Amino acid sequence: MHDSPGTDDQQDNQKVVEKIVDDIDSLSGHDTIRVRDMVEELGQATFIPLLMVPALLVISPLSGIPLFSSVCGLTIALIASQLLIGRKRLWLPNFLLQREIKGTRAHGALGKIRKLASFLDRHAHQRLSFLVRPPLNKLVQVLTMLCGLAMPFLELLPFSSSILGISVVLFSVGFLTRDGIYVLSAMILIAVAGMIPAFALLHL
């Protein structure tokens, strides 16, 4: 199963993001949640929902954990690259699959982003859908991969990784709901995130 607009993976425009948050939150009753648990919960063939999970987590309070943004970025880059080349099932290295967070901490973090999830779901509509269809969908996938690759380098700069995380969330919602407005919004945020390192260098 391949995550692109028009496939069986396309979600109902209502509750797209909230459902993913609920699915991951359903695991928070355990002492710890591993990346492997999240993949098994959502399914290895659901690339876009799996792409959204680390992006949501990196904009949550969990991003304050040292190297957490780097791990999320690497995960995003690996998922996006496999989506780009058309793999049918996701592969992640074992060291990523074994990464874990405390269930109570995950529950608290997911609670913090529920309002954002609800907002994104309410405002998603099929607009400018050509941006998430071939051939432009490949450009969006490349940009998503680059967002993930950039996160480890931007971890020390406040808000940079979170801005890229929001961009990946917007790309993901855009794919799932065929909403090109979210894709355009994500591109603007990427441009903003790119200005932060330049601004920091100018003020060294």
Automatic annotation (TrEMBL):
TM segment ranges: 65-85, 153-175, 181-202
N-terminal signal peptide: none
One Pfam assignment: ExoD
Keywords, in A-Z order: Membrane, Transmembrane, Transmembrane helix
InterPro entries: ExoD (IPR010331)
PANTHER family: EXOPOLYSACCHARIDE SYNTHESIS PROTEIN
Protein name as catalogued: Exopolysaccharide biosynthesis protein
